[in-house]
Amino acid sequence: MAAKPVVHEAINYLRNTQQRNGFFNAFVRVSPEREVTSQAMAASQRRETGKSLSPLDGTIFAIKDNICTKDMVTSCSSLMLVDFVPDYDATVVAKLKDAGAIIIGKTNMDEFGMGSHSTTGIHGPVKNPNSSKLSVYSAGGSSGGSAAAVAGNLCSGALGSDTGGSVRLPASYCGVVGFKPSYGLLSRRGLVAYANSLDTIGIFTRDVRYAQLIFDCLNEHDPTDPSSLDGRSRRKIKDHVSNQSRRWNIGVPVDYNVTEISPPLKKAWISTLAILRDLGHNVKPVNIPSTRHAVSSYYIIALAEASSNLAKYDGVQFGSHTAAISRPVSGISPSLQLVVAARERGFGKEVRRRILLGNYSLTSEAMENYFVDAQRSRRLIKEDFDGIFSSPNPLGSRQGPSLGTEAGVDFLISPVSISSAPNLEEVARMGVTGVDNYINDVFTVPASMAGLPAISVPVHGDKDLPIGVQVTAQYGDEKKLFEAATLIE
Ligand code: GLN
């Protein structure tokens, strides 16, 4: 007798994982086959008896390795957390499980989410499923494992985290949909913090509608996450949900037209706009001048927050004990020596670099010039965005005539990255961790700094490699965002 569809699908994903993960290196841990198939059988039975828990019942999910999973190592691709086994599920994981989803494994990433190519972690680089025999391409980062798992058909959907682009960039490189919600909508409880004022849980799928379905399942206030948007504010968003059935005003951010964009990407950007114009929508240029400072201010704020978040890993109370003293450090007490050794061994080069930069920007001599200035620029970025959208920011405190005007735009269309996926040799040549790599985030960090929802939708790129076009909308305007994204997929 043929296997039931749910079970059949689960078995297919398991087989694909067994056959392909050796090359992709997308998963760092795979759930036992027995567990996955027995959960699939239970879901199949529920479906047959009309008792499915949700549309996600029996679907196969991958979870980035910085999102806590009960009784399953959550390493953040760091030696520091190599033996960390959480005793609880992150809220988003618990919600997926409640909906009947099956967790097939944990995915590879840049250490603590710091990077753009999934090359800075302890598990080795993720390889883009679009690689050929001649070229092995970057899967993007930091959620490269989740993107590759979806692109390589190892699961139906995956969770990642997006602090400054870590869902959208790998989605763009791998050719899948990558969605980052408005800050505060999806619970961060159980997401190991990189930069908490920017961190969001993100979603990878092969089509936009499925991303929306998953988002709807996870989008709920979580009283255990202090940054989760409360019910009152959520109602304000509902009140602002705009009319879906009219001609859109589509903004093209002229400040994003930087010289670094590769010609094929520019071409893809222009043809997406042409498609939308042909569908009868208005396309118009908009200025968001402050976004020119977005990358530099992002790297000050994110690193300052990271240095504080990672301060707790001392190898004693938090972090692995395996990082034993490698060489004695003179002039400090033996107990401090232990901490120094644990941090020196437990963190990789890029993480240590960022902790140092972050700590420096918070010192009294640098604070005013760096951290405070970056916060000012973040406020300007938010104000610039608020000034161009047709709908007002439902949480915005600034009210003015420029907010929510008819002349404003419904959403923005831009590239996600400056080029399609570079090959991994090129990445290594650029210096895996060099600050030059930070340019990759030029189109993704502005939405992160303003807390706005954004989605990467795959379009045809160069060299047969996919590339992503990004749609960005006003805070809380997810509905419109998904609507727009379906038009270009
Ligand atoms: N590449 C960016 C960084 O390294 C974004 C990372 C992320 O979103 N986690 O900070």
Q: Could you explain the architecture of this structure?
A:
The chain is an alpha/beta fold and 489 residues long. It has two domains: 404 residues, Amidase signature (AS) enzymes; 63 residues, no CATH class. Helices cover 37% and strands 12% of the residues. Strand 7, helix 8 and strand 8 form a beta-alpha-beta unit. Helix 1 runs antiparallel to helix 2 and helix 9 packs across helix 12. The mean pLDDT is 92. The chain binds glutamine. Keywords: ATP-binding, Ligase, Mitochondrion, Nucleotide-binding, Protein biosynthesis. It is an enzyme of class 6 (ligase). Allows the formation of correctly charged Gln-tRNA(Gln) through the transamidation of misacylated Glu-tRNA(Gln) in the mitochondria. The reaction takes place in the presence of glutamine and ATP through an activated gamma-phospho-Glu-tRNA(Gln). Belongs to the amidase family. GatA subfamily.
CATH homologous superfamily identity of the largest domain: Amidase signature (AS) domain
Number of strands: 11
**Roughly what is the average pLDDT, rounded to an integer?**
92
Q: Extract low-pLDDT stretches.
A: none
Order of helices and strands: HEHEHEHEHEEHHEHEHHHHEHHEEH
Provide the gyration radius in Å. Answer: 22 Å
Which ligands are bound?
A: glutamine
CATH class type of the largest domain: Alpha Beta
Shape: globular
Question: How much beta, percentage-wise?
Answer: 5-15%
How many domains, as an integer?
2
**CATH structural architecture of the largest domain:** Alpha-Beta Complex
What structural category do the secondary elements indicate? alpha/beta
EC number: 6.3.5.7
Family: Belongs to the amidase family. GatA subfamily.
InterPro entries: Amidase (IPR000120), Amidase_CS (IPR020556), Amidase_dom (IPR023631), AS_sf (IPR036928), GatA (IPR004412)
Pfam families: Amidase
